[in-house]
Write a structure and sequence with these properties.
The protein has 17 helices and five strands. By secondary structure, the protein is of the alpha/beta class. It folds into three domains: about 190 residues, Rossmann fold (3-Layer(aba) Sandwich); about 50 residues; about 110 residues. The chain binds zinc ion.
């Protein structure tokens, strides 16, 4: 895979390629946008492009610390008229292959670890030391820090030092679906690259080209039926990472079962963990959105869960539009509080009560 294979993020890609073409690479980037949208994929392929051994591009020389952010370019390189179109990795050279396998000695991958899901100061210190040495075989030493909002306070403070005194030949790429949770002191020292959800037609095309194993096994006939890719596109809200990595339709059905059980239609089972709680609250927002849309328009054309029209129709009969919107706000509020380790049993009972008040 290369930058050219990343669909629907042209604006972000053009900005990154522009940095290379103009020899104005930032010391730190923040890739911001919803999860499963292509941020990490772009970061990996940007790192591949910067260190690729085969690609013909201006190969910007690593800046000198004394020169600040401006990259130096020799006269031969200045003679090259490089276009955005030509900027990409080859995806075949040893450097590209090593980065894909996460074994390149100059490219570091960092993500939250442990029960608390935090990025700890010890990891940042190891990274600082690794960045302080010259690159072994690449042009750049690159750190890709996934879910950067999970830098804990001490790690964030230590990281700030790296941002203020960037080691030579280094580029930091922070990735976050919740950039507002990253301390302002860090956010203000990086270049932001924003990623957007893909439009439905592009998602359908991508899903047909890269169908998950379960769909491939079902045969081309099923793939050619656009109904399923279209539904997956809607359920993933334009996030290809989600649509390709899991059986979203099956998962949606499980989330719907929990919705019914919380309404008193069956046994209430506890959530498996905080991730599954967050997932349910994220999904229920879409479900309530569909019920509210149907209530307001009486049309199925705008539904995300359009295959569940009959169930949505039943639910909209039981509730006033105003109450559905109030419920949606309250559940969103609970979702935003999940980070503070809400008691699961209390959350379960309170949520059940709210649903029954609206739809009971
Ligand atoms: Zn390459």
């Amino acid at each position: 895979m290369a930058l050219k294979d990343i669909l629907g993020q042209n604006r972000a890609l053009e900005m990154l390629k522009g940095c290379i073409v103009k020899n104005r690479l930032a010391h730190a980037y923040l890739f911001a946008g919803e999860s499963g949208i292509g941020k990490r994929l772009t970061a990996v392929n940007f790192a591949k492009t910067l260190n690729c051994r085969e690609t013909v591009h201006s190969s910007p020389r690593p800046r000198s610390a004394k020169r600040g952010r401006q990259l130096t370019v020799d006269s031969e390189e200045k003679k090259l008229h490089i276009t955005h179109h030509e900027i990409d990795c080859c995806d075949k050279c040893p450097s590209c292959i090593k980065i894909d396998k996460a074994i390149h000695p100059d490219v570091f991958f960092i993500q939250p670890e442990g029960d608390g899901g935090q990025i700890r100061i010890e990891i940042i210190r190891v990274l600082e030391e690794a960045l302080s040495y010259k690159a072994y075989e690449g042009r750049w030493k690159i750190a890709i820090i996934d879910e950067a909002e999970n830098l804990n306070q001490s790690a964030a403070n230590a990281f700030l030092k790296t941002l203020e005194e960037p080691p030579e030949h280094s580029i930091l790429i922070l990735i976050s679906s919740m950039p507002e949770l990253i301390p302002e002191t860090i956010r203000s020292r990086r270049q932001s690259i924003n990623f957007s959800p893909l439009p439905i037609n592009m998602m359908v095309e991508l899903l047909i080209q890269n169908s998950p194993a379960s769909l491939r096994e079902a045969g081309r006939a099923k793939l050619n039926d656009l109904r399923e890719p279209a539904l997956l596109s809607m359920l993933s809200c334009g996030r290809p990472g989600r649509a390709l990595s899991e059986d979203l339709i099956d998962k949606r059905n499980c989330l719907l079962d929990r919705f019914k059980s919380l309404l008193g239609m069956g046994d209430i089972n506890a959530w498996d963990d905080r991730d599954s709680m967050e997932e349910w609250f994220e999904w229920v927002h879409l479900w309530l959105r569909d019920i509210a849309v149907f209530k307001a328009t009486n049309s199925s054309g705008l539904l995300i869960n359009y295959d569940k029209e009959s169930e949505i129709k039943k639910k909209k009969k039981n509730a006033a539009l105003k109450d559905i919107l109030v419920l949606s706000d309250k559940l969103n509020n609970i979702k935003s509080l999940l980070r503070f380790n809400l008691n699961e049993k209390i959350t379960l009972n309170y949520t059940s009560l709210l649903l029954k008040e609206t739809f009971g």
